[in-house]
Amino acid sequence: MDSVSNPSSMAIVTDAHPRPGLRSFSASLDLESPIEEAFALLCAVEKWPVWLSFLRSARATDPAAPLALGSEVIVRSSLPGDEEQLYEVDQFIANYHLSLVGAFSVRRRLDFRLERKTSYAKLHVRLTYPAYGGRLGRLVDQWRNGRKLERVLDDALMHFKGLVEYRTEDPILADF
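The chain above was modelled as a monomer; its predicted structure follows.
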């Protein structure tokens, strides 16, 4: 399990093994932003590759409809498995929870949760995908993908934090 010492400024990434044959990475980060703005950015599927660097592209199958329970999202990623995958929104609570499950593999999951705190919000992200080949397969996957995904997930949350907290009216940024 890897973690960074200052949770208010860095993401905390953990590698959990919920079930045999699955790889799961979780990260959490505090956001100094209203929860509604953070959730709106989470629902902007086409912007996911901007902050989730392991995704090459993401698009809703019906771009005119808002993201909701049952919506389908096509993702091209660098995760192990097929290059392009279809996900379905299987859990949706406005401003709090967005969870997608693989349409053809329920062992693939992207889960985003927002927690409202008094003066800030906390974002929790969990990424789960199958690792085939038993213990040896898991070790090979850890060697090939694990450390990279931990680093990428940490960076992704920092990018998300920057996007959601950026304010043009901020006096410090007024010169830009």
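Residues 1-11 have pLDDT under 50 and may be disordered.
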